[in-house]
Amino acid sequence: MPLRLRRKKKAKFQEIAGRVEGEPTSAGGGSVSASPAPAHKLVFHAQLAHGSATGRVEGFSSIQELYAKIAGAFEISPSEILYCTLNTPRVDMERLLGGQLGLQDFMFAHVKGIKKEVNVYKSEDSLGLTITDNGVGYAFIKRIKDGGVIDSVKTICVGDHIESINGENIVGWRHYDVAKKLKELKKEELFTMTLIEPKKAFEIEPRSRAGKSSEGKIGCGRGTLRLRSKGPATLEEVPSETKAKAIEKIDDVLELYMGIRDIDLATTMFEAGKDKVNPDEFAVALDETLGDFAFPDEFVFDVWGVIGDAKRRGL
């Protein structure tokens, strides 16, 4: 039985599957519903990555509201926050705050630092960088490939926010739109990027958590708060080892076919397929949940294979 997938939208897939990859922060991706929004009060703690006192953060239900609450705790504008890392003040792209926040995670907000303008000669079709975004309008550099075009420009660093390309302001763009813009730049020509690096301090060890307090204490809970750009946050259980490995494999399939990694998108796909009985039902579920992507049939079969293996092992 043929899969009932969209054919007319496949051009969109081709646009974002280039070698200039973009990686979403899970903050912008949709997800199937989990448990209802938590009724009890959740309290988190945060610091500014370059150094500050500890602030309490509570009463948010989306990634935008979280950034606003962090900004309020430190009396800065939300627009000053580039992104957050979890449990480390360093610019560690493996610990970015995305669409999930563990109940015991400590947040470090990286704010705007020095602005710089760099000229890049595009000697190759691929620039050798991976782009992601914070879910609220700031795209930044997540990885730089050794020996690539961008690697040769030593003033460009991982964690730099891309504010404009050739004078065009791209604040508010998603990571894949920025990646497409860079990919479309002509080879053998010079282009200019305006970058903002995160504010830096001396190298320091991760700061300790907030002092002991019974008010709002989470305790030893192992849940995860899933944040969305639209809709309320939901409190979810920590996934089983089998489920977690399956989601990681789906993320690998995403990178293979589309040149992106997005753990929240992979989670959404797993949830969409875990109760389906065949690939056709799974394809329809993907259409309903992620209709803008127009995944190719081979991709759907590979993801369905991962989900099937996980179901056989028991979730």
UniProtKB/TrEMBL annotation:
PROSITE patterns tied to this protein: PDZ
Family: Belongs to the GIPC family.
Protein name listed in UniProt: PDZ domain-containing protein GIPC2
Top-level taxonomy: Eukaryota, Metazoa, Chordata, Craniata, Vertebrata
